[in-house]
Amino acid sequence: MGAGGVCLLLVAVLGVHIYLALKPKPITPGLREMARIDVRQPLTKNDAARITDWLYREKGVDHVLVNPQTQKVVFTYFPYRNSAQQITKDFKASLPYDADQFMPTEDQMSAGGCPVAAVNFTLKVRRMLRQIF
Fold it and tell me: Does the residue 1 lie in any domain?
């Protein structure tokens, strides 16, 4: 009787684990991602304004920063509405700038990938709790 109860308990735990592991993740409307485009030519303030205006018109983009001195474009977007790859592809097709999306190297990814998430303990705890519940 005791061995049957333990087996039944283990099967129930396995079932709950499989359900939680395979359950589809809901799309979180507040979730944002950040991407960077590196421009390989000098930018003026007018170029920065043109890039900023263009990116704000892209679907899903909600914040844009352009630094003409470093030739970097950083933007946040809603991943359920658009992707960084698509935005970059449209950027290169629509604007006359030699640019590519910044992709971290293997060393950068092994060091944590995102510098914000690497130091934000609260974010890590919230993500872990979100996966459990």
Answer: no
